[in-house]
Amino acid sequence: MDQEQAFNARRHFIKLTGLTTAGILLSPSNTFSMNIGSDDAFKPAILGGAPIRSKPWPEWPIWNVETDEKLVVDNLRSGVWSRAALVKEFEEKWAKEIGTKRSLSVVNGTNALIVSLMQSNIGAGDEVIIPVYTFIATAAAVLATGAIPIFVDVDPETFQIDPKKIEAKITSKTKAIVPVHILGMPADMASIMKIAKKHQLLVIEDACQAHLAEINHQRVGSFGDAGCFSFQNSKNLAIGEGGAITSNNDALMDRCYSYHNYGNPYGAMVGNVSAGTLIPGNKLRWTEYQAAIGLVQLKRLQAQTDKRHENATYLRSKIMSIPGITPYRLYENVTKAAFHLFAFRYNKNEFKGLSRPDFVKAMKAEGIPVMEGYAPLNKMPYLANAFQSKNYRKMYTAKELDINVYNKRNECPVNDKLCNEEALWIFHSTLLTEKEDMNDIYNALEKVHANAEAIKKSIK
Ligand SMILES: *Cc1c(COP(=O)(O)O)cnc(C)c1O
Asked: Which residue, 299, 333, 347, 374, has most beta carbons within 10 Å?
C-alpha cells in the first residue's frame, strides 16, 4: 500500500468505524487501538496488517463439566441405555417448547423428514415441493420415499422459498409442500398455508435449523401437519445426532411411533395383539444418554436463542450502511428467528470487483469467519442417479424420468446467482457473544471494503 492509499484507508476507516473517542482508543482489548500509531491497523490483515480480531469466537457445542455431566453420567452408570424415561421426558418437553400435542424423537433430522412424509402416505408417483435453497437432506428425504422433489426458487431478500413461485409448480401429482425455515429464519408460513389449503396439500415443515423461531409468537414446527427438527452437532440444540417430529395429529404420530419401533403396535395402532407386528417398520430410536444430553442443552436454548436474535438484529442494523453488503430480511410477522446462520449478500461491484472467495479470505484474515454456503441443489448428480435407480425405473415411466425435461422444469436462476455469487454466512455461535464483538464484524467489513482495491491487486 503506498502512502496516499494508506492515508485514505486510514481516514475512511476512522470515519466509518467511529473509533475516534478516547475511551475506545484506550481500550486495551481492542487490537485496533493498540496499533493506532502505525499503518498496521489500517493495512488489511491479508496484506500483513494487524487483524481486527485475534480473540477467538465461542466454540460449539457448549459443554459445562460442572452443570452438565451429572445427568449423563448417572444414566451411564444405571445401564438403562435403550429408549426409556429420559427419551420420553425429552419428547414431552420438546412438544411443550414447540407448542404441539406430541413429539417423537428419531435418529436424525433427515429421518424425521422421511418418516413424517412416508407415514403421511407420500411415495411413488407423488411430487413434493421444496425450496431449492436448502440443505441436501430436504431433497434426499423426498427421494427416500420414492416421490420426486420439485424445486421452487428462492426469495433472495429473505433466503426463503419464494411463495409467489409455488403455485406455478403445482400439478395433479403434487401431494405436499416441505417449507424449510432455512438459516433459522421463518419461511412465509401465512402464504404457504394458504396455498396448501387451496390445493389440499400436506405441509411438513423442515425446521431443522430453526429451533424456537416464531411467527406471531407461534413456534415454527407447529404450523403444518408436522414439523421436523435436527439435533446434529452443528445445530442450535446440539446432541451429536438426533431428530424430532412434532405434530398435533395423534393418528400420524402413532404411525410414526410404530414405524420407528420396528412397526410394532402403538397408541391407536393396536391391531390384533396376537397378530404381532403391524406395519413394515424401521428402527430409529434414541438412546437414553442421547436424551440426557438433549435435556441438558434444552435448559440453555431459550437464552441462547434470545441472544442470537438480539445480536443479529444489532449487527444487521450496523452493516446495512456498507455498500455492497445487504443483510437478510425477516418477514414482517416474525417475532423471533433462530439465526442458525447470519446471512447477507455480497455485491463485488461495490468492492472494486473483489471476488467472493477473496473477500472471504480477507475477512478470515481479519479474524471473522465467513462462509459462502450452499451450492445449487437442483444441479447435483444425485437426482439423475435416483432417476436411474432400479426402484425409480419400476415406479415411473421413462418419460417421467427424462432428466432434461426435469432439469428444465426445475431451473432456479435466482438461486444460481445467490449460491454462486452473493450469499455469505456467519455461524450461529459467533452470535453468542456481546454487542462489542459484533462491532468487530462490522469493522472488518468496513476495513475490507475500504481496502478492496489493494486487496484485489495483491491477491492476483
Ligand atoms: C441439518 C438439516 C437436516 C438434516 O438433519 P440431520 O440431523 O443432519 O439428519 C435437514 N434439513 C435441514 C434444513 C438441515 O439443516
From this structure: 374
Q: How far is CA 380 from the centre of its chain?
A: 20
Mutate to test the pocket of ligand 1, among 232, 241, 286, 428 (most ligand atoms within 8 A of CB): 232
Contacts of residue 297, defined as CB under 8 A and 6 or more positions apart, other chains included, come to 61, 62, 231, 237, 238, 239
Ligand 1 atom with minimal separation from the 108 CA: 7
Assigned architecture for domain 65-297:
3-Layer(aba) Sandwich (3.40)
Please indicate, yes or no, whether the overall pTM of this predicted structure exceeds 0.90: yes
Atom of ligand 1 nearest to the CA of 340: 15
- Cα separation, 292 vs 73, whole angstroms: 9
Tens of pLDDT, residue by residue over 292-339, are 999 999 999 999 999 999 999 999 999 999 999 999 999 999 999 999
Residues 142-193 have pLDDT tens digits of 999 999 999 999 999 999 999 999 999 999 999 999 999 999 999 999 999 9
- The closest of 292, 394, 223 to 69, measured between CA atoms, is 292
Phi, psi of 394 (to 5 degrees): -80, -30
DSSP E strand boundaries for 191-340: 202-206, 214-215, 218-219, 226-230, 243-247, 325-327, 334-336
Does an H or E element contain 423, and which? strand 423-427
Beta bridge partners of 240: 232
Q: Give residue 26 CA to ligand 1 midpoint distance, Å.
A: 45
Nearest Cα residue to atom 5 of ligand 1: 109
Distance 205 CA to ligand 1 centre (A): 12
- 43: which 3 cell numbers? 493495512
Going edge to edge, which strands form the sheet with 202-206?
Answer: 102-106, 243-247, 226-230, 202-206, 174-177, 127-131, 148-152
